[in-house]
Amino acid sequence: MFPAAVRAPERASRFSLRATAVLAVVAALFGLFGWLNYRGAHRLLVADVRVRALAPPRVVFEDAYPEQFPMQVALLRTAVDEPPLAAVHALREMGIPFFVTRQLAQALGHRLVLIYPRIDGETFSPAELELIRRHVEAGGSVFAQSAAAGAPGAHFGFREASASKRRHVVRFERGADPLLRYLDRPEELEIRLGSDQFPEIFWTQGYTPDASATTLARFEDGSAALVRKRIGSGAIYLSGVSLLDGLMRGQTNRHYEAFRHYVNAFEPAGDVWMLLLRAWYESLEPGAVRLGTIPRGLRSVVLFTHDVDWENSFPPMIDYARAETAHSVRSLFFVQMKYVNDANGKGYLSPGNLDVLRRIHREGFPMGTHSIIHSRAFNYFELGTGTETYGSYKPRGTGPNTATGATVFGEVRVSRELLDGNVPGQHTVFFRAGHLRVPKTLPEALARCGYEFDSSFTAPDVLTNFPYALTLGLDFEQEAGLYEFPVTIEDEEEPALRERVDSSIDVFRANADNGAVSVVLIHPTDAGMKLEAEQAMLERLPAGVEAMDPLEFARFWRARDRLDWNVAPGAKPRTIVLRAGSREPVRGITFEFGGEIAAVSAGANLLDDRHRIVLAPLEAGKSVQLEIAFRP
Ligand SMILES: [Zn+2]
Fold first, then answer.
1. Would you list the DSSP string of 318-364?
2. 617 C-alpha vs ligand 1 centroid, how far in Å?
3. CA dist list (Å): 621 to 308, 554, 582, 585, 626
């Protein structure tokens, strides 16, 4: 009995040991699974996003934009208290070749002279005014702005100049001059400088033209906003609105609520000033050569983008990607990298949703980030330190309009840490702010975190439909090194997007007429009616307009904006040599010429209109040289 009695408990204890071991293994497996699950959901992988010091080079405009060839516009600085960035932006965006100088004699070596930023009684001596008069008389042209009382009005076509902050509207006289050639839509022929809710906005000069001058545009008080004075075979144009106020104030979002609609409409109030300069150059420079705004000789491009900012928006991304692939189109997905639970909802970077992002990336679609907590208060956030990282950054939305623990750097940097960290091969360079709320520090935070492009404004809100270089602090002084692609059409305003396809196409057409672009924002909250609306847009794009990968276009625009190019007389009569070099690879660079082209050497395609050529793809750091022969 004894051994049995002894064995019995031994067997029992062996059994319980085995059971315990099995239970322990099971428990360990559950634990491991749970831990892996937890890790998958909460321990996201983090890419290294380095924060660079802010060391922008101090631009000396006269050195950055040197005199190279006769068809350049001379940008003559009459005062150095204001950087000529507004004029530089206008000319660069329009692809007009130019150089910057402070020397009148050097400027007058060129047919077209843009005088910036102002003219007063001290700007020019009588002898200099006589030189300008003779230059114009011989077929030259001057475009000037902001001539104040005391300026030599007789030379510029006015009897009186009256400064006021109370003018809100400019109406152009349709067809009154070749300069107005691009202003044909109602939104272009009448623009607002600011909302009536601000009795005073910025200074404008209203002119009383003299008998030698013609009024091309008026303010609402009847004074002239743009006058032309013909002298001999040339003309002087004088604007009462400065390019800083007309264009740059919009681009930096420092205007007085000048837009007529916030989004989903054509608002060219800033574009018209650039289009005047484009028409000025094209109509008065016989050897006009201009860098086209759109690749491959197209009239315009439409850039489709999607904001993924809701937990259920992930699976429909696949449907959008599939439908777009069927149209040979790529859109760009801006993803909110929400890993915190807060008053506005739960975090949703689940393993399943991250899988969707990886799949979208594998299928070749570009992605950008769309912040962490998507706060309506983003434009009030502090910049932060730049040390914000996933492990320590704990932002919380405490309501739709409030947040704690959040900074601009945190939203920008950590969202990139997570998107790049969890999607192999993803390298994020594009950002869009939640609710399109933009803090003034955003360009700095983006540039320092390695971003290259932004799409956080609406086009009407920046009064322009052309991409442009963002400035530090959204100020008038210094570029931040990145580019803005503002949103033209979105899907949240009533009526539903499906009901707005026609009006959207009309905006695409208006932009195509100007060589501008359109950006469409559709939230992939479902793959039903909104996707149908997008497909309807794709099927009905106007002639010469194509949908293009937004990242590809952004890179095109940057390379184009920084293209180093010049022209020189060729060896034979009626020929020129065009040289172009790019720091980054770029395809589809297009040049437009005033003259009719007879032939172009290898390295470019001549388009059917015989006024435009498309360059073969440019390699980074290399330049090409082409000979172009014109018809007599
Ligand atoms: Zn959003």
1. HHHHHHHHHTT---EEEE----S-BTTB-----HHHHHHHHHHHHTT
2. 36
3. 37, 19, 6, 8, 17
- DSSP for 555-606 reads HHHHHHHT-EEEEEE-SSTTEEEEEEEBSS-B---EEEESSPEEEE-TTEEE
Distance 619 CA to ligand 1 centre (A): 36
Element (H, E) at 420: helix 408-422
Taking residue 384's Cβ as centre, other Cβ atoms within 10 Å add up to 19
The encoded tokens of residue 256 equal 């007085």
Q: Cα of 116 to ligand 1 centre, how many Å?
A: 40
Distance 375 CA to ligand 1 centre (A): 9
**For residue 259, pLDDT beyond 50:** yes
- C-alpha count within 13 angstroms, C-beta hemisphere, residue 79: 13
- Cα(188) to centroid of ligand 1, in Å? 30
CA-based Rg of the chain, rounded to a whole angstrom?
A: 30
Residue type, 8: A
What is the 528 CA–ligand 1 centroid distance (Å)? 19
Other residues' Cβ atoms within 10 Å of the Cβ of residue 26: 10
Largest Cα–Cα distance in the chain?
Answer: 135
- CA 433 to centroid of ligand 1, rounded, Å: 7
Continuous segment of H or E residues that includes residue 501: helix 501-514
DSSP code for 466? S
- Mean pLDDT of the region 142-147: 98
* CA 447 – ligand 1 centroid, Å: 21
* DSSP 8-state class, residue 541: P
Cα 564 to middle of ligand 1, angstroms: 37
Rounded Cα–Cα distance for residues 281 and 397 (Å): 51
Residue with tokens 């900012």: 309
Arithmetic mean of pLDDT over the chain: 94
CA distances from 213 to 167, 225, 299 (A): 22, 12, 35
Q: pLDDT tens-digit profile of 177-232?
A: 999 999 999 999 999 999 999 999 999 999 999 999 999 999 999 999 999 999 99
Number of helices (H), then strands (E), belonging to the chain: the values are 18, 31
The Å distance, Cα 264 to ligand 1 centre, comes to: 16
Decide if 390 contacts 422 (C-beta within 8 A). no
Q: Which amino acid is at 496?
A: A
pLDDT in tens, 57-95: 778 999 999 999 999 999 999 999 999 999 999 999 999
Q: How many whole angstroms separate alpha carbon 527 and alpha carbon 531? A: 5
Identify which of 463, 84, 62, 553 has the alpha carbon closest to the alpha carbon of residue 275: 463
pTM of the model: 0.93
